[in-house]
Known about the structure:
The structure holds two protein chains of two kinds. Chain A is of the alpha/beta class. Helix content of chain A is about 30%, strand content about 25%. Chain A has an eight-stranded mixed beta sheet with strand order 5-6-4-14-15-16-13-17. A six-stranded mixed beta sheet of chain A has the order 8-2-1-12-19-18. Chain B starts with a strand and ends in a 16-residue tail after the last strand. Chain B is mainly beta. Chain B is about 10% helix and about 35% strand. At the A-B interface, β16 and α11 of A face β3 and α1 of B.
Amino acid sequence: MRYSAWNVFKEGLKEQRGWKPAWRSPDPQQSYDVIVIGGGGHGLATAYYLAKSFGITRVAVLEKGWIGGGNSGRNTTAIRSNYYYRASARMYEHSLKLYEGLSKELNYNVMFSQRGMISLAHSLHDLELVNRQMNAMRLNGVDAETLSPAEIGRRVPILDISPAARFPVLGGLIQKRAGTARHDAVVWGYARAADALGVDIIQNCEVTGFQRGPDGAVTGVETSRGRIASRKIGVAVAGHSSRLAEMAGFRLPITSYALQAFVSEPLKPVLDTVILSPATGVYMSQSDKGGLVIGGGLDLYPSYAQRGNMPVMSNVLGAVAAQYPSLGRVRLLRHWAGIVDVVPDSSPIIGASPVPGLFLDCAWGTGGFKAIPVGGTMLAHQLATLNPHPLAKPFSLDRFTTGALIDEAAGSGIAH
Amino acid sequence: MLQISCPWCGPRDELEFRCGGQSHIIRPDPPEAIDDVSWGKYLSEKINPRGEHLERWQHNAGCRRWFNVARDTVTHRIRATYHMTEAAPAFSADGVAP
Ligand SMILES: Cc1cc2nc3c(=O)[nH]c(=O)nc-3n(C[C@H](O)[C@H](O)[C@H](O)COP(=O)(O)OP(=O)(O)OC[C@H]3O[C@@H](n4cnc5c(N)ncnc54)[C@H](O)[C@@H]3O)c2cc1C
Ligand SMILES: [Zn+2]
């Protein structure tokens, strides 16, 4: 059933009893044209674009837990395209544009709110970086403006911009088209739309191995629900990418780390933008329910634990209390971590793997929620045509051999 | 909070240390004979196991020396810390360092 104001009204007259589950729960078939491993945003978007753009509907998405139970349902939902290098700017900007039309495209309200994102400058050095970043973004055709301390003070009154502040504010950069979206809605929206086009979404189905032909190419997967055949397999499992690579017999330049996030008790509206302090690594926005959504840096040692440790927590929350003194006594409601897949140049890996028939969409690290629409677009293109999507070419795995790295960590100087 | 036993200084809080990633990586030799693929692998590929990881740590707020840690990446339990040049201690029957 289409979601519309009219249908909500009509169902209201029938006590909302007519709604159907938004996607089916089919048993796995014996074989598919394409298997996508991982039911996060990237996997589900891949399945959707395979069906929508290429008419390939014999597709299964295999998810070991429940869809959106990985990082797509654990992130702080910042969406932006304020990157430094041309290749990244083009790709993330493409994603941002897809987000701008996503609710309509999926007939599902993903609550994309373009409330802008401000990156602060706390020193003269930061200020130079802000200007360099603004220029790079504009040259790449992405919107960017600098802000004075007074402008930042007006926009974010809870931020301490006094000269005596522990982190004085000398200026900032804003991307006005950046913002946040509802993470579950992005996952559910893609799931519902893919399902409607015939994609099988199979939950509680863990991939435990690959089947290979005599030429080494993949011929299927072994799962907790039996063997499923396919000659084209896409992997979008974020922090678990190394595990899948190990099953297929190769290694990736990935290290898995825990990234924490925090949500406060609901408050009245105090913050109408996303604000990042590169000096402390802390960023914050306020959800529609009123909770402050807070993120920080990684727990900097390899982890698959899906929970964070105290030192990062106290750094992050200490920085919040220092920069936003009025929040010092706010209580936290929840705190969690997700396992993110980080590579030396902080850019994704898209396209061919060393194993024929097996394709990758990973290494999004701490910043792949904003990239869900473009990640799905690129992996679907690769699986359907067996050629890399034009936006994906610079992000191939072989850049770690050629040395053509796209070092966004150094380039844009931003964490997420 | 992890408690890590520096081989020189003894047990200290995680805050004093910095993790330097996978240990026991051997640089391929001789440099002029190494092709781009092996060099790229040497520089970037990681084992990244879910389970015990042998890794380098530096006691950077203490003696500033490097050493090795055998740590589980799921439970974060540290089985052993040992010197840079030592081999990883073998598992004993109860899974603890002998
Ligand atoms: C705390 C935190 C904050 C973040 N903040 C932001 C942000 O503000 N903005 C942003 O853009 N990005 C952010 N990110 C990053 C973003 O969440 C991820 O890059 C993105 O969600 C990755 O999506 P995915 O679909 O690739 O992976 P996931 O959503 O993790 O999905 C992968 C799925 O694969 C499944 N899986 C794993 N192994 C198997 C197997 N063997 N068989 C079957 N299924 C398997 C998992 O169960 C999981 O559901 C953040 C991440 C975290 C953890
Ligand atoms: Zn020491």
